[in-house]
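Z., the sequence and structure:
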Amino acid sequence: MAYAQAAAVLALVTACAAPVTAPPFSPSPAAVATLRPASFATIPGWRADDQRDGWEAFLRSCAALSSQPAWGEVCTEASALAPAESEAVRRFFVSRFTPYQVVNPGGSEHGLITGYFEPLLRGSRTASGPYRYPLYGVPDDLLVVDLSEVYPELRHLRLRGRIEGRRVVPYHSRVEIESGRARLEGREILWVDDPLDLFFLQVQGSGRVQLDTGETVHVGYADQNGHPYTSIGRTLVERGELTAEEASMQGIRAWAARSPGKVAEQLGQNASYVFFRELPASGPGPLGTLGVPLTAGRSLAVDARSIPLGAPVFLATTWPRSAEPLQRLMLAQDTGGAIKGGVRADVFWGFGAEAGELAGRMREQGRLWVLLPRGYPPDAIQTSGR
């Protein structure tokens, strides 16, 4: 297959990884990392972490993975265990898994570790009073193209676009959507009172909306317009509006309060736009790409081209804006538009103000180790998602 043909297709429609059923995982020329065999003895903090805190998250991964050959036996064994001590969990992973360190293409072992959370917004089911900013469901004219059967190297990509005559063209950008150029009438799910809160909800991917009736609605990612994510914090730094140290969610909010007239134009720098769906109010947590509920402090968003979804991942980094080590067993259960690269991950901190404080300030360097079932090298592992 000529790569130039695939490149021509990519030029027509902007590509973006999205929460859909993930294809077989294999480190191929399209991969953005190497998984290098390692040993548990070389993982910093491996013996200090109370891994019982990640056991329930691991069982949730198994709910999505157990039908696959690599995971069936190990997940069946795990489901029969009720470990009372952290050491028992540790013995299970040591006996049944092989660790692989994630290494960037240039050989670096370090990468950016950030955080995300489930925010709370104020809203209404009708456009009234302060509730003027809509959360949209998936547009009827949004086209999703999967070319993986013809171009296997594109198997980690889903192309978004729309039909214009006989051509497939990129879907509308954020600015075009918010100016009314997209056909979204009737696709409003809810209306909220703050455009910046709505923007951050799109960045986080899921959240809750406290309605003017007292009802709380849970919303989650449904799809995306296909445009690449652009960091607002980075563009504010480049423009001299913020220093690098101020480019956190809290810093962006403070800047917006000082510069309300610049907010709309600045948000428009990020052409990416997320569409939502209403979720059941009951449940242990928002759903990640893997299709299982996320666990606060133990679920991780990764680039699925490098790390197979569902796998245990040991994270070695520091707490937000601190030198204190943060070293713990995580589960790769989510992806994100901004999570691109080998050693690159996003820690899910949960719901509420404290989680938001941690997520908003987290921008640390860290290392990652993937644990894969013994006897199954990386190219034999598959991932699955919703």
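The first helix runs from residue 3 to 12. The CA atoms of residues 69 and 135 lie 40 Å apart.

Let me know what you think.
H.
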